[in-house]
Write a structure and sequence with these properties.
This protein is of the alpha/beta class and 353 residues long. It has 16 helices and 8 strands. The chain has an 8-stranded parallel β-barrel with strand order 1-2-3-4-5-6-7-8, surrounded by 8 helices. α6 crosses α16. The N and C termini lie far apart (46 Å).
Length: 353
C-alpha cells in the first residue's frame, strides 16, 4: 500500500498540484488515477510556464499560428487552458461519477486581473465554465471580502467553486454562508442542489511561514492548529440547523489542506498531522514522488477544541488579522505576477513560431 492508497483508506482524498499537458502525453495522470487512486488535479501558472518554455505545447502554438487565431498571448492562454482542463476532466470523469461528485475534479485559476471586481470575476468564471464544458471542473476564487458574493452567484449558476487563500475560521464561516446562499437560491428556483459543490483551500505552509518568526522556539505548528480549528468548524456547521434544512444530497463544504508551497520534508509533517476523514490533501508532484511508496501510519488527530488553549498562547501579542490580511494581499500579488510572467513566456513562444 502506497501513500495515496493509505490516505484513501483513512477517508482522505489526494489531489495533485501543477497539472500540465505532459501529464497526459507521458501517461502520468492516467497512472496516478489507476494505480495510486489520485482523485483530482490543479493547474497553476508556474507549472505552465515551465512546460511552455519546454516543448509540451509547441504543437498547440503551431496550430494557433496556422489557424490565425493567436492574436494575443491572452487568446493563446485561453486556448491552452481550456484544452488542458478538458483532457484532465475527461480522465477524472469516472472518478467523479464513482464518488458521486465528491472527487474527480480539475481546478483552474481565473486570470488574477479579473478578481478585483465582482462583475469581471463572474464573467470570467462563466466564460471558462462554458468553454471547458465539463461538470467536474472547479473554478478557484480567492476568499476576499469582494469575492464572497461572487461565490454565491456562481453556486447559484451551478458553477463549482474552490474558495482559496482561507486562513481563519471566521472566513470559513463566511464562505459557508455564501455557499448556502447559492444553494438556497437554487432551492427557491425549484432546482436540485446535488450537482454543485464548493471546497475551501487552506495554505497551511503559508500560515506557518507568517507566524514562525513569533514562535521560533516553539514546536507547535500554527498552521496545523489552525487547520484543526477549521475542521472543528466544518463538523459544527454540518450539524447546524441551516445545513440540516437542505435537501439530501447537498455536498458539504470540504476542506483542502494545501501543502504545495513547502518542501517535501515540511509536507510530510502536515501529512502525519492532518490525516482526517472527509478532507483533501493537495500535494506537489515532488512531495508525491518523494513519499509515493510510503505507507502512512495514522496518528492521533486532536480536535479543534483541544487546540484552542495552545493556540491562544501562540497568538498572544500577535495581531493575527492584520498578518492574515497582509498574507492575502501578498498571495494575490504573487498570483498576478506569475500570470504576467506566463503571458510573457507565451508571447516569446508565439514569436518563435
Amino acid at each position: 500500500m502506497n501513500l495515496l492508497q493509505s490516505l484513501r483508506r483513512y477517508g482522505q482524498s489526494v489531489w495533485l498540484d501543477g497539472f500540465e499537458r505532459g501529464w497526459i502525453s507521458r501517461g502520468e495522470l492516467q497512472q496516478y488515477i489507476e494505480e495510486d487512486a489520485l482523485r483530482g488535479v490543479r493547474s497553476n501558472f508556474q507549472s505552465l510556464i515551465a512546460a511552455i518554455q519546454g516543448q509540451e505545447y509547441d504543437r498547440d502554438f503551431s496550430t494557433l499560428a496556422q489557424q490565425g487565431i493567436s492574436r494575443s498571448a491572452r487568446t493563446a492562454y485561453d486556448y491552452l487552458i481550456v484544452r488542458d482542463m478538458q483532457l484532465a476532466a475527461d480522465l477524472l470523469k469516472e472518478t467523479h461519477v464513482q464518488t458521486q461528485g465528491r472527487d474527480g475534479y480539475t481546478q483552474v485559476n481565473l486570470p488574477p486581473d479579473t478578481l478585483f471586481e465582482a462583475a469581471t470575476a463572474i464573467a470570467a468564471a462563466q466564460n471558462i465554465w462554458q468553454s471547458i464544458g465539463w461538470s467536474n471542473l472547479l473554478v478557484e476564487i480567492p476568499a476576499t471580502q469582494l469575492m464572497l458574493p461572487v461565490i454565491t452567484q456562481l453556486i447559484g449558476d451551478r458553477i463549482n467553486v474552490n474558495a482559496t487563500l482561507v486562513f481563519s475560521p471566521s472566513v470559513y464561516e463566511q464562505i459557508f454562508d455564501s455557499y448556502l446562499r447559492g444553494l438556497e437560491r437554487l432551492i427557491r428556483q425549484g432546482e436540485s442542489v446535488n450537482e454543485v459543490v464548493c471546497f475551501v483551500s487552506v495554505a497551511i505552509g503559508r500560515l506557518d511561514a507568517v507566524i514562525a518568526p513569533f514562535i521560533a522556539n516553539s514546536e507547535i505548528s500554527f498552521g496545523v492548529m489552525q487547520a484543526k480549528l477549521l475542521y472543528q468548524h466544518y463538523r459544527n456547521l454540518r450539524r447546524s440547523e441551516r445545513w440540516r434544512s437542505l435537501p439530501g444530497g447537498a455536498k458539504p463544504l470540504r476542506l483542502v489542506w494545501d501543502c504545495t508551497d513547502v518542501s517535501p520534508e515540511s509536507a510530510w509533517r502536515y501529512l502525519q498531522a492532518l490525516v482526517v476523514p472527509e478532507t483533501v490533501m493537495l500535494l506537489s508532484p515532488l512531495t508525491l514522488e518523494r513519499y509515493r511508496e510510503v505507507s502512512l501510519l495514522l496518528t492521533s488527530f486532536t480536535d479543534g477544541e483541544n487546540a484552542k488553549t495552545p493556540l491562544a498562547r501562540v497568538l498572544q501579542g500577535i495581531g493575527l488579522d492584520e498578518w492574515i490580511d497582509q498574507l492575502l494581499s501578498e498571495e494575490m500579488a504573487r498570483s498576478l505576477n506569475a500570470f504576467d510572467r506566463l503571458l510573457e513566456v507565451i508571447d516569446q513562444k508565439r514569436g518563435a513560431e
